[in-house]
């Protein structure tokens, strides 16, 4: 999976968890909690959705590695590459 594919998947799942977000207005550096105002339950739901969609286990210490779309695209593409 390319970084762009991972970014798209991340944004699609993010918007499912927080439907009032406009995916077109989310910048690569937007922090999902500080900037996009997801709470801890939203983050857990996002992690679960990414696991279901991509088959990637994201342990809690790695949540900081998916805190922005830019970080998530790198993290997810690397995890899926093996």
UniProtKB/TrEMBL annotation:
PROSITE patterns: CARRIER (PS50075). Residues 1-80 form the Carrier domain. Gene3D superfamilies: ACP-like. This is Acyl carrier protein.
């Amino acid at each position: 999976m390319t970084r762009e594919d991972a970014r798209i998947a991340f944004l699609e799942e993010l918007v499912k968890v927080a439907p009032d977000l406009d995916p077109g207005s989310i910048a690569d550096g937007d922090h999902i909690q500080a900037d996009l105002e997801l709470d801890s339950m939203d983050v857990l739901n996002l992690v679960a959705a990414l696991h279901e969609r991509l088959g990637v286990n994201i342990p809690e210490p790695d949540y900081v590695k998916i805190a922005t779309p830019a970080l998530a695209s790198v993290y997810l593409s690397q995890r899926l590459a093996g």
